[in-house]
Design goal:
Helices cover 73% and strands 0% of the residues. The protein is mainly α and 249 residues long. The chain is globular and about 65 Å long. The longest helix has 40 residues. It has two domains: 69 residues, SP0561-like, CATH 1.10.3910; 169 residues, no CATH class. The structure holds fe (ii) ion. Fe (ii) ion binds next to helix 7 and helix 8.
């Protein structure tokens, strides 16, 4: 985040939404995550209001975001062409969900089998994660076979490499509405898992698999939130605008 950006944020702090903070600087994602500030499914909420509700000092959080940015090179997702962004989401986030989800399922199932008697909440968390992973795989398949190819087609039309024809689903808003509802469901499942596990707090008798499962769930949730942010707050609204221009021609 540049000094200029910080000034912009400070000047408009009461009007800034959680998703705008992450749009302005992707490093904000990790900092907001740390304070359980949901920037993807509830990204339209005002940062200042949510901080106040939770008793958090908003200026301290902004400083943390600035420091996170200094440590890392920033990817300019907002400047990318949508076909490139769609491929990035598939190659980075979708691959991660597919691969890590299977490993997490194994670890959490093993934890539930060994510790479920003393900690029945882990059995419920394992069931919820399994549902979430299964649903996400189906969700990503719909994106990879229907929605993202259509977005890539819109980019081709924009670049003059294809002529526009309205899709069989009438407008992109229809699949996007469905995808956003599915994002919300995945986010809600993680809220439940966090409640059940008291924010992934390990019991005193936790074994190494228990620890690994909680760390992996935490990482999975952070990646999921970044992933949903890229779709809900960048890819989808830009694709809607792109299609609107073509439908109006
Ligand atoms: Fe998605």
């Amino acid at each position: 985040m540049t000094e200029e950006n910080i000034n912009v944020i400070t000047a408009n702090i009461k009007e800034l939404t959680l998703s705008q903070l992450v749009l302005n600087d992707f490093h904000a994602a990790e900092v907001l995550e740390k304070y359980h500030l949901d920037f993807c499914c509830n990204g339209n909420r005002l940062f200042y209001d949510v901080c106040k509700e939770k008793g958090l000092e908003h200026n301290a959080i902004l400083s943390e975001i600035e420091n996170a940015n200094k440590r890392n090179h920033e990817l300019k997702f907002d400047l990318w062409e949508l076909d490139f962004l769609a491929d990035y989401i598939i190659n980075n986030h979708h691959q991660y969900v597919k691969q890590s989800g299977t490993i997490i399922n194994e670890h959490i199932d093993k934890t539930a089998a060994v510790h479920g008697k003393n900690h029945p909440e882990i059995i419920e968390a394992a069931k919820l994660f399994s549902i979430c992973h299964k649903d996400l795989k189906q969700h990503m398949m719909k994106e990879e076979t229907i929605l993202f190819p259509y977005i890539k087609y819109l980019v081709k039309v924009k670049n003059g490499a294809a002529s526009f024809e309205a899709p069989y689903f009438s407008t992109i808003r229809n699949p996007i509405n469905m995808m956003e509802a599915e994002h919300q469901s995945a986010g809600d499942i993680f809220v439940k898992i966090r409640e059940l596990t008291n924010n992934f707090t390990l019991p005193s008798d936790a074994c190494n698999t228990y620890k690994a499962a909680f760390e992996e769930l935490n990482d999975f949730e952070l990646d999921l939130h970044k992933h949903i942010h890229l779709e809900n707050n960048i890819l989808f609204p830009k694709a809607i605008e792109m299609e609107k221009e073509m439908l109006n021609k």
